[in-house]
Write a structure and sequence with these properties.
Gyrase A, domain 2; alpha+beta
Length: about 130
């Protein structure tokens, strides 16, 4: 009878350990996936990155887009942005995720080059 209790407790502890391990691995995922697509009329950046780098990415974007502050202390963003120089783009951002789409047909050459340079300069690793 005592052996069954110890055996059951042992299996429970192993099961809990495995569950905690998978949970920890899922929350500390360090994979980075970046996709840049350029078509005649659009430029698109789609990125998945470690959630811990979200604040660095947001700070970088706000710094590059000054005087605009697109995040304004929000955790998520899903909107069309128009900057003071009339650069227009769509951005969707949340923890560990960034999607940016620029319509080339409505933006100047300078605006297109600026947004491309900003996207190329993002450091998703945070180092």
């Amino acid at each position: 009878m005592m052996n069954k209790i110890y055996l059951t407790l042992g299996f429970c502890l192993i099961g809990l350990s495995i569950a905690f391990l998978f949970s920890w691995l899922n929350n500390n995922q360090q994979e980075i996936s970046i996709s840049v697509t350029e078509a005649p009329n659009t430029y698109t950046l789609s990125a998945f990155y470690p959630k811990g780098q979200t604040e660095n990415v947001k700070r970088y974007l706000d710094n590059c887009l000054k005087p605009a502050s697109i995040f304004r202390n929000s955790r998520e963003l899903d909107q069309e942005i128009t900057l003071s120089d009339q650069t227009r783009f769509y951005i969707k951002a949340s923890e560990g995720r960034l999607y940016l789409k620029l319509d080339k047909s409505i933006n100047s050459g300078n605006s297109i080059r600026r947004i491309k340079a900003i996207c190329e300069g993002i450091n998703f690793k945070g180092s």
